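Example complex used in Figure S2.
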Amino acid sequence: MDFVNKIIQGDCEQVLKGFPDNSIDLIFTSPPYADQRKTTYGGVRPAEYVDWFLPKAEQFLRVLKPTGTFILNIKERAVNGERHTYVIELILKMRERGWLWTEEFMWHKKNAYPGKWPNRFRDSWERLLQFNKRRKFNMYQEAVMVPVGDWAQGRLRNLSETDKIRDESKVGSGFGKNISKWVGRDKVYPTNVIHMATECSNRQHSAAFPVGLPIWFIKLFTDSNSIVLDPFIGSGTTAAAAKQLGRKYVGIDINEEYCQIARQRLTQVQPRLLEELEEYEVRAMQ
Amino acid sequence: MDFVNKIIQGDCEQVLKGFPDNSIDLIFTSPPYADQRKTTYGGVRPAEYVDWFLPKAEQFLRVLKPTGTFILNIKERAVNGERHTYVIELILKMRERGWLWTEEFMWHKKNAYPGKWPNRFRDSWERLLQFNKRRKFNMYQEAVMVPVGDWAQGRLRNLSETDKIRDESKVGSGFGKNISKWVGRDKVYPTNVIHMATECSNRQHSAAFPVGLPIWFIKLFTDSNSIVLDPFIGSGTTAAAAKQLGRKYVGIDINEEYCQIARQRLTQVQPRLLEELEEYEVRAMQ
DNA sequence: GTTCCGCATGAATCGATAG
DNA sequence: ACTATCGATTCATGCGGAA
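Predicted assembly (572 residues):
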């Protein structure tokens, strides 16, 4: 287990071949999208995307524990006026190779990229595809319910008028849209729709997804002894989420510069106490 | 055109064979979901769903105008712990047969059914698949613009406070200008995520979707001369939406009882004035 | 210490232009 | 005909300096 809590530079397909079978509890990743991030990752053409991804998915399947889960954040591009089919083709091919397609969560991005076209509106959602090896997998549903404690009440009381307005506009995930709704409630189960804004103007580390996203899935699918893998770690968001939650992490990226950024970022992240986590989570979800 | 503003009993595949080519502007429908509503539709097995649907889709393609749009409201069931693949297989097969898969809208069902399962959360979204015959189709984006987001609401509120003070001290200067700056920005284009609650406990007609859903798409893809078709009309929601908006409609259903219900319902629907429509729409979205 | 306001910043897409 | 690049379009968010 010498790969634990490391950020490893390399092609994840090759790097993972050195990993033992059944060693990872959760794989959470957002691979480079087709024709996207050409400068850093070279860009994969839509027509070649499935063939590019499948051998990697084969390694993911091998290293994942039978009770583990694979969450794939992805969205197809518009090509020649149509949504391309590589994502849904990928689902079918992965099933042929042994994956179970358990669920499709929906990430509603409240701050979608602006723009106007004659034939479509702004794209404001992405897929979070859940794959498993077995029908029985670890799931800790209570971990993503929203508890109502004194800290929430206190925070609510201290909210400024502006904050209240903003809390309405910002996002909760399925579990509680704004703080005021929690008052008088004990716990609420979420749905499979997650409302969360992208962190587009975060100058410290601009990431493809907000840290609240991996936090949510790590809490849902792992316990404190678990290992979380992100084979396209990028700026380290998934690893930071895992470390905050006291989980072990492994990050892989083909780009050494990103690995450096992720390692640097992780030195500034410490596991948080439960109360801090709760508050952190609220901020992240807002 | 003797089919206009009629509710026709029969299998839509057979009924549509009597329709001329290129005669429909918008097809909006929510077909019977696989293996559900067994009593009324006889139940279609998930594994047979694609073969069941494709010959109907062939007729839809034929009767649709080249500038028309087909909106398919559908969601795959969970079968044996997995999301079934019949919906994504259907997309691929329809493309092979000439349809363009232009877009996938997301219907976020704000009040999803309660329930709890060990391996999944409540399903609170459905697909609204957009298919077209051609890359160029009719789209009236201005008809569905929405109020600008809450971020502006908060600032607008504060701004107007300031402007009120200014108005008292300085007569007429600056006031109009500041407001007019925001008046131009009070409406924005929507995204491809539609937030709408399901209609619960409507005793007159239990429908698969709220009337606000077809209203939105009818406004987006048709003008007042258009014909809207729903080949699985059920209790008549799509036809009611079309009639309200002053469009022509055609509804088809294999179940005579549903046809009766739809016809009865339509006698109670009248085209509304613009102001009434606006108000109605606001209620539907809330 | 708060709150307010200006401003940069995005996993985008289309159509036109150029090689 | 097929690919690469570029400009125009657009809006929610968070940061940082100002009030």
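Residues 109-117, 122, 166, 169-170, 197-203 of chain A lie near DNA strand D (CB under 10 Å from a C1'). Chain A has a mean pLDDT of 84.
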